Amino acid sequence: MTIKERLHSILATLPEGVSLVAVSKFHPAERIEEAYNAGQRIFGESRPQEMAAKYPLLPKDIEWMMIGHLQTNKVKMIAPFVKMIASVDSERLIEEIEKQAAKNNRTIDILIEVHVADELTKSGWSKEELDAYLATGALERMEHVRVRGVMTIATNTDDESIVRRDFQRIKDIFEELKPRFDSAFDTLSIGMSDDYPIALEYGSTMVRIGTAIFGAREY
Ligand SMILES: *Cc1c(COP(=O)(O)O)cnc(C)c1O
């Protein structure tokens, strides 16, 4: 199947209101262009250098999303153009995004990455850390950061019950946090190539799909 065919067969399974992030990390700009020509506009990258290198090569109406762990000293590489940073996992990172967004006269959307999976290696806030941070009120003082919702990566396992448990946890956290934010807080980003049909059952509003669109990555 071509990228266009894969893209359209995935889109056909997404309920209205669910957005698709085409995860293009490790794939060259030509493949992104192919997806763009098939109508796709939102692309996810996991490394700031790679995103910054692709940005000038591609159409300017692409919405670039950072989905991988971001070091604070790399925020400035993408701050002039990135639409959303979906992997916000620390207070320092939020402060740096605020600073760089202000410098560029922009507002940058963020998703708070929450850790619900079994693997300790995964990044993201624990619910306790997040509650402690939110209680400081620091987030409300940010003027160039717009909190759009939460994201997580489920445990990497064949045991579907564990994946479902993770999605239920993040859904509960999303619902609990929602009243604390304004109406821009509307995004529950869960679901990747292997688990997005399950994520949709838990109310995902934004799936992040790479392999099922572009094929396997060569690292
Ligand atoms: C790579 C990645 C994806 C896409 O994974 P696929 O299995 O290729 O669909 C989604 N989300 C994040 C955070 C990723 O790093």
Brief account:
The protein has 219 residues and is an alpha/beta fold. 36% of the residues lie in helices and 17% in strands.
Task: Describe the secondary structure blueprint for this structure.
Blueprint: H1 3-11, E1 19-23, H2 29-37, E2 42-45, H3 48-54, E3 63-66, H4 75-78, E4 84-88, H5 91-103, E5 108-113, H6 127-135, E6 145-151, H7 160-177, E7 187-189, H8 196-201, E8 206-209, H9 211-214
Parallel strand pairs: 1-2, 1-8, 2-3, 3-4, 4-5, 5-6, 6-7
Percent of residues in helices comes to 25-40%
**Coarse morphology:** globular
The H-and-E topology, N to C, reads as: HEHEHEHEHEHEHEHEH
Strand content: 15-25%
The average pLDDT value, as a whole number, equals 96
What does the model show?
With 219 residues, this protein is α/β, with parallel strands linked by helices. Helix content is 36%, strand content 17%. The protein has an eight-stranded parallel β-sheet. It starts with a helix and ends in a 5-residue tail after the last helix. The model has no long low-confidence stretch (mean pLDDT 96). The site of pyridoxal-5'-phosphate (PLP) has 14 residues, from strand 8 and helix 9.
Key features of this structure:
about 220 residues, alpha/beta, 8-stranded parallel sheet, 9 helices, binds pyridoxal-5'-phosphate
